[in-house]
Amino acid sequence: MAQDFIANLDPYNGGIDKYENGKRRMYVILSPEEVAAGRTTRWTELDIQNKGIKNFSPYLWSLRHLTALYLNNNKISRLPAEVSNLQNLKHLDLSNNKLRSLPVELGDMLKLQDLLLSNNSIRLLPYELGRLFQLNRLELDGNPLTPELLQKAREVNGTQKLLQFLLDTLEAPDTPPKRPWVTIRERTGKHMTFTVMCYNILSETLATRTKYGYCPSTALSWDTRKTLIMREILDNKADIIALQEVETEKYTTLFLRELSQHGYAGVFQPKSRAKTVTEEERKHVDGCAISAWLCRCLPAQIKS
Predict the structure, then answer these.
(1) In degrees to the nearest 10, what's the CA dihedral of 210, 211, 215, 221?
(2) Per residue in 36-73, is it b (16+ CB within 10 Å) or e — as a string?
(3) Which tens digit of pLDDT belongs to each residue from 94-146?
(4) Contact by Cβ (8 Å): 53, 74
(5) Residues 6+ apart with CB under 8 A from 257
(6) What is the largest CA-CA distance in the chain?
């Protein structure tokens, strides 16, 4: 029944007209004749508040076009992980329910801007919520959360401070996932083959919280990243290594030194603005570096 009700809503043909927070929701119930005639529906906001519902139809999580979902003032005690299927959702209201916990998959809904959870029975917040870098409004009052979390949420810019705390507490994986190699030509006895590793290492000056709000501070730290980057480069043992966004100083103090010790020779070219800035600023101008493994290339072919 719930699935039929959801499937037969039409927001574009009169019916109920509701306004909340400046947002408009309109819908009617399609008649059996309209459904039989194949009339299709599409709406961006769905209101199922004040219905006393306890469970959901699985069909709800297939409505990937939704941008707002109002489930407040019901008797919901569990939010399934499938809620993360609604990747276009910007507003989610679950206030005044009976939720005791939240699925970690909620942290995958990166377009969320409003998450209303007031007046539930939530005791813990999953650290994965810290990845919601576009979230502007997080309401938590009326939940038995720790005083520390509630205090952070009530401070000026409390939502951002709380998200930062959760994100920095989230345990990062020890190693990045393995990157698949793309084979251009299979190895044969007739042709010389070689491997090329192309890697944008992300300049330290560009690795900011403003651009990468979904990353923990430790993951953006150059001290953390340089070890992982160099390990991955050396573990792959590519014949040719092409790096982008390499800062001038880091090329000479890290990449040139480390790669030379492992039999590589190469060249580095900073961006043209390196010619127009001071010597101190030049250290942070990024560019491209290409290195070749001398065991596979003639030394005369590499001009440093």
Answers:
(1) -80
(2) eeeeebebbbbbbbeeebeebeeebbebeebbbbbbbb
(3) 999 999 999 999 999 999 999 999 999 999 999 999 999 999 999 999 999 99
(4) yes
(5) none
(6) 80
Q: Does the CA dihedral 182-178-204-216 come out positive or negative?
A: positive
CA distances from 167 to 73, 144, 189, 204 (A): 29, 21, 51, 20
User: What are the structure tokens assigned to 168, written together?
Assistant: 């920095």
Return the structure tokens found at 156.
Answer: 């000026």
How many CB atoms within 10 Å of residue 189? 4
Highest mean pLDDT among 22-36, 88-102, 140-154: 88-102
Count of residues in the chain: 304
The answer on pLDDT for 210 being more than 90 is no
